[in-house]
Amino acid sequence: MSTALSIERMSELYGHWTTLWRGDFSRADEILDPGFVVHQARPDGSDSEAVTGPARLLPEIEQTMAVFADIALSVDLGPIVQGDLIAARWTLRARYSGGLEHATAPVGTPVAFSGHDILRVSGGRFVEYWTCTDVLAGLTQLGAVSGPNGPARP
Question: For the whole model, what pTM was predicted?
Answer without folding.
Answer: 0.83
